[in-house]
Amino acid sequence: MTHFLIYTEDKPDSLFIRLENREAHLNWVMSDPDVQLISAGPWLDDAGDMRGSLLIVSADALETVETWLEQDPYNNAGLTGLKKVRRFNWLFGAPE
Hints:
By secondary structure, the protein is of the alpha+beta class. Helices cover 28% and strands 38% of the residues. The chain has helices spanning 15-28, 62-70, 73-76; strands at residues 2-10, 36-44, 50-59, 80-87. The protein has a four-stranded antiparallel sheet. The longest helix is centred in the N-terminal third of the chain and has 14 residues, at 15-28. The radius of gyration is 13 Å and the shape is globular. The two termini are 13 Å apart. 17% of the residues are buried.
């Protein structure tokens, strides 16, 4: 399995979309056996509002992660502006 880092930024003025779809997103993020969630959470702007997400997952291939992300309720609701997925070489603090 390969680790991947996922960074997203919400579209401007879209906190309401995030809040309306948060429960569905939280249920979805753990639902695919082909993508194992290792760590995740929203990143915050200077006012303390959620403005995007940072996830670390493991999967067999980048394509698997990209397909998985297309099914994210946040993505389907139009929340996601910028999305970056990169292979991640875990050096310190890796899960056992």
